[in-house]
Amino acid sequence: MDVLLVTPPSRLQVYQGLASDLAAIEPPVWSGLIAQFLLLRRCEVAMLDAEAEGLTHEQTATRIAEADARLTVFVVYGQQPSASTQCMPGARKVADALTRLGFDGATLVLGTHASALPERTLREEPYTYVCAGEGPHTILALLEHLKGRGALAAVPGLWYRDGDALRGNTSAPVIADLDAELPRQAWELLDMSRYRAHNWHCFHDLGSRGSYASLQTSLGCPFRCGFCCINAPFGGSGLRVWSPDTIIGQIDLLVERYGIRNIKIPDEMFVLNPRRIKDICDRLIERNYGLNIWAYARVDTLNDPVMVAKLGRAGFNWLGIGVESASDHVRDGVTKGRFGNADIVETIARVRDTGINIGANYIFGLPDDTLGTMRQTLDLALSLNTEWANFYCAMAYPGSPLYQVARAKGWALPDDPGGPGWIGYSQHSYDCLPLPTETLSAIQVLDFRDAAFNEYFANPDYLRLVERKFGPAVMAHVREMTASTLSRRHHDRKSA
Predict the structure, then answer these.
(1) Beta strand ranges found along 215-288 (DSSP E)
(2) Among 36, 104, 292, 469, which is 20 to 30 Å from 160 by CA?
(3) Sign of the torsion formed by the C-alpha atoms of 390, 393, 397 and 403
(4) Which InterPro entries has this protein been placed in (predicted)?
């Protein structure tokens, strides 16, 4: 075998108890795209999704050793665009288990985290090579080198050891023609029955969470939000898209061959170009597949009422919208758009009037946040009372502008000496350590976030909303969800 693409197990450490039932089990989008890229070039490829198979780190290592591929690629992304860093510890445990097995094959790690910190990753981690960039061209050239047909120094985007020195080659070009070079994911290399949607994605029928796929329709983002690291593998902000023909072709395949009905579009910004969105929606409306789709949008990209109406008719039952903060000053501090609270309220109301459910996203602990502004944000969330809400702590993810600011100002970060390490960047982990602000400690921010989650989902207005829209079983499900709390290390320290 030429290449084995591995999704290491991280869910239990990243999500704690949420991993067992509430969180999604996502198909590995990047692995699927890279696999198809390599298959088109007549490479022998396999995928090992240890997350979906429920493998331990040791079992994953054993499977890798048994496969004995010429190149084993650790594809370290996560279920969210900014989730690569928190998955690094799980990958490391597999790599360490491989070492204990005496495995001496070539290994490469890639992902947003590795692209953001390639030299540090090579210095601190046990992989043979590190990829700085999106991956396909680097993997292909490295494979040629391993077959004796090219110099290591000529592999674009590669970091490697040269004696005691660490070397980094020039960047690989990003793929310009997505339709031609990454025409689809290699779904046939996966057991699609293993995947499931988020609980809220199927509030209309909690028993239908299977039949699930994640479909990328664009790469990158043209915006420059200070807290986001999504563009780290791509070398800067920008957007590349697949054509509507390619997107609809993938959906046809998912529906007709695999019986998929629930689809996530993980693009950082799907709802952006109204003409493109309308074209995609028109084709889905014509097919009438009865899909249940969710995608990301922004307050300032939902101004076309015809487009929004088409989204609803096409099966986009949920849109994730970044509100982030109720404070204009706090939003401005991380360059989060030029919209105010009135725009947020009006846009969300207009979208919901079409029948589309909203998953609103909020961030506590942004650099200019105070206890007062965080309370304003929670109050806005309670008043909007959307069908779902995600509450996050501000994190200075490697690859984001905020990470550079935090390093320059000497703010405490999870990867500092004595800190919890990369797992501290996980919002739901035991070791979560968010960014402090000028007036709040990291623990104050974390405590506020956890309390906000419980206040929102236990709010009688919210419970009445979900009972009215989705039925008493969903209301009971939400009550059960809020009954279990996340364990946090600092709580255990206080009670010790």
Answers:
(1) 218-219, 240-241, 262-265
(2) 36
(3) positive
(4) BchE-like, Cobalamin-bd, Elp3/MiaA/NifB-like_rSAM, Methyltransferase_Class_B, rSAM, rSAM_horseshoe, rSAM_sf
